[in-house]
């Protein structure tokens, strides 16, 4: 077998690696072709809804990218509701009626979730307030000590240091 | 002022300690105090006895609905306690056989005992979704008007039947009958 010259081999290898890295990130699709709706517009809506619904078995994946049995059942259910003429909100309400707000990956702003939504903002404001107070106090202290006249003791010490310098 | 970091630490420590005792896998049911879903399921093909439907839950008595499957390992551990509860005769215990193959389910019941008042075979899992089922075993307590009053996610094992389920059943029986 004849071997290709090294530069050619390097180019071929680079090409292969590039192809590989382009192809690799495409994730394995959880949605099976047989689940999909024939109408691309409806299927796109189903995909969009599915991306916002939590898989209850895995909990940190949406039903759109989970391989769990229940996720598949819910994907099929979402498509059935769409085919039956439900709007996106109606489909989501149908699932929320059964599983609660927990299935929503983006929780709604409600009395029970207000801490979740407002918490980070409140903590940030408190932090900024603490920083502001801290620096204001420090600045006040620096200015106060800068403006105070030297005491007799300090003047004597200063004179001693300056005298010492001249020697 | 020097106490502040200590106080902050103590507050956070208590907060996280409480958090550690909670199981993130337990999701509160959206169906508590709501009417049980509408369904009418035949029994497992080949099993003698009745199917299970919403009408069974509206007969004026508190009932227990146990969601089980032969492929579910914790159900196997739980089943003797479900049998025991059914034997006590204080409540009808209905079975919802979730996403199972009839042969496997029949075999399972033959080996472990079948004390259910009636069993519905939910082969597609669609009725399970209406009940908000996400991990078998799950057990519901339904009051006489057919409203879901309590949901247990995960197996009833050990002393849970005595310490948790039976007192709840008695409380609901005493309450809204």
- Helicity range of the residues of chain A? 55-70%
Largest interface: A-B, 15 and 18 residues
What's the CATH H-level superfamily name of the largest domain in chain A?
A: Cytochrome C biogenesis protein
Overall strand count of chain B: 7
Rg calculated over all Cα atoms of chain A? 34 Å
Percent of residues in beta strands of chain A? under 5%
**How many domain regions of chain A?**
2
Number of helices of chain B: 5
Classify the fold: give the CATH topology of chain B.
Glutaredoxin
Strand order of the largest sheet of chain B: 5-4-3-6-7
**End-to-end distance of chain A, in Å?**
90 Å
Q: Give me the oligomer status.
A: heterodimer
- Count the DSSP helices of chain A: 6
Taking the sheet with the most strands of chain A, its summary is: none
Which shape of chain B, going by the Cα principal axes? elongated
Using the 3D structure, state the CATH architecture of the largest domain in chain A: Orthogonal Bundle
* Mean pLDDT reading of chain A: 84
CATH topology of the largest domain in chain A: Helicase, Ruva Protein, domain 3
Q: Using the coordinates above, name the CATH class of the largest domain in chain A.
A: Mainly Alpha
Please write the string of helix (H) and strand (E) elements of chain A: HHHHHH
Task: Characterise this structure.
- The complex is a heterodimer of chains A (167) and B (177).
- Chain A is an all-alpha fold.
- Chain A has two domains: 6-108, Orthogonal Bundle (Helicase, Ruva Protein, domain 3); 112-166, no CATH class.
- Chain A is 63% helix and 0% strand.
- In chain A, helix 2 (40-51) crosses helix 3 (69-83) and helix 3 (69-83) crosses helix 4.
- The termini of chain A are far apart.
- By secondary structure, chain B is α/β, with parallel strands linked by helices.
- Chain B has a single domain, classed as Glutaredoxin (3-Layer(aba) Sandwich), CATH 3.40.30.
- Chain B is 37% helix and 18% strand.
- Chain B has helices at 3-20, 73-88, 102-112, 126-130, 160-175; strands at 40-41, 52-53, 63-68, 93-98, 118-122, 138-142, 148-153.
- In chain B, the strands form two sheets. Chain B has a five-stranded mixed sheet with strand order 5-4-3-6-7. A two-stranded antiparallel ribbon of chain B has the order 1-2.
- The model of chain B has no long low-confidence stretch (mean pLDDT 92).
């Amino acid at each position: 077998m004849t071997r290709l010259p090294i530069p050619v081999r390097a180019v071929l290898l680079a090409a292969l690696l590039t192809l590989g890295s382009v192809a690799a990130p495409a994730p394995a699709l959880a949605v099976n072709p047989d689940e999909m709706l024939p109408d691309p517009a409806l299927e796109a809506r189903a995909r969009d809804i599915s991306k916002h619904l939590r898989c209850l078995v895995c909990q940190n994946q949406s039903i759109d990218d989970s391989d769990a049995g229940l996720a598949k059942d819910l994907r099929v259910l979402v498509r059935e509701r769409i085919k039956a003429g439900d709007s996106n909100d109606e489909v989501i309400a149908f699932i929320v009626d059964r599983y609660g707000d927990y299935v929503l990956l983006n929780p709604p702003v409600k009395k029970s979730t207000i801490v979740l939504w407002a918490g980070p903002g409140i903590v940030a404001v408190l932090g900024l307030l603490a920083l502001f107070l801290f620096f204001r106090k420090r600045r006040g202290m620096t200015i106060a000590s800068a403006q105070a006249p030297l005491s007799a003791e300090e003047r004597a010490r200063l004179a001693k240091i300056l005298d010492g310098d001249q020697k | 002022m020097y106490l502040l970091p200590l106080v902050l630490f103590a507050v956070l420590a208590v907060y996280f300690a409480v958090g550690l005792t909670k199981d993130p896998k337990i999701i509160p049911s959206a169906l508590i105090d709501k009417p049980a879903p509408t369904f009418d399921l035949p029994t497992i093909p080949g099993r003698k006895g009745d199917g299970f439907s919403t009408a069974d839950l509206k007969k004026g008595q508190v009932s227990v609905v146990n969601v089980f499957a032969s492929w579910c390992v914790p159900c196997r551990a739980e089943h003797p306690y479900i049998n025991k509860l059914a034997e006590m005769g204080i409540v009808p215990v209905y079975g919802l056989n979730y996403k199972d193959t009839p042969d496997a389910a029949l075999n399972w019941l033959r080996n472990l005992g079948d004390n259910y008042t009636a069993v519905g075979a939910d082969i597609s899992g669609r009725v399970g979704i209406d009940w908000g089922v996400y991990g078998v075993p799950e057990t519901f307590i339904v009051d006489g008007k057919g409203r879901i009053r309590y949901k247990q996610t995960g197996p009833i094992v050990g002393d849970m039947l005595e310490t948790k389920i039976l007192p709840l059943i008695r409380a609901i029986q005493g309450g809204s009958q």
